[in-house]
Design a protein that fits this description.
The longest helix has 16 residues, at 119-134. This protein is α/β, with parallel strands linked by helices. Residues 196-202 have low confidence and may be disordered. The radius of gyration is 16 Å and the shape is globular. It has one domain (7-191): Phosphoglycerate mutase-like (Rossmann fold, 3-Layer(aba) Sandwich), CATH 3.40.50.1240. The N and C termini lie far apart (34 Å). Strands 3-2-4-1-5-6 form a six-stranded mixed beta sheet, with helices on both faces. The protein is built from six helices and six strands; from the N terminus they run E-H-H-E-H-E-H-H-E-H-E-E.
Amino acid sequence: MNDSLRRLVFVRHGVTAPQEQGRYCGHLDPPLSERGREQVVRSQQAVLDLHPSQVWCSDLQRCRETAALIFPFIPHRALAEFREIAFGDFENRQYSEIASEVNRILLDPECCFPAGESLRQLGCRVAGGIKKIMDEPGETAAVIGHAGSIAAAALWLLDRPLRSFWSFQLPHAGRAIFERSAGRWTDVTADWIGRPEDDWPT
């Protein structure tokens, strides 16, 4: 493990056309929309100011495009471990059509989306990706991910229960920053838009 790693910076990708239409993307692979690219460009300098020595991203193109826009001169490495949760049969469906079903599934860590994943499976997958980063040298690493995979990363780094998932949600192109001291990770993020844990069923 890389004991020199002191900061992990997660950035959510910019918005895509299906998301602008209110659709779940999951493992679907649309590119950024024009508005999504504008969101990313606006966030670029704040992320560059953190001086990451390594850049990672989900292997889906909306994250690869985001990584290339923010870090045009830093090679990025794509990992499937940082993909969004697999919504399975719910992918490309309208938020308004199935929101209650999606929320019910995400509040039960063991419940899988039809032909998709459970929250616990997402958490295990993302933890595997973070461990790969920790094997690499450098003090600051940046990861371009998705709302779900970044929330799962926060839970793992902070040792929070899966029921806290909704407390760690980012807007498109938003940042989550974690710093490590004495072997413990702390959250120094200001971009969260999730509701407090106490607002959600246990």
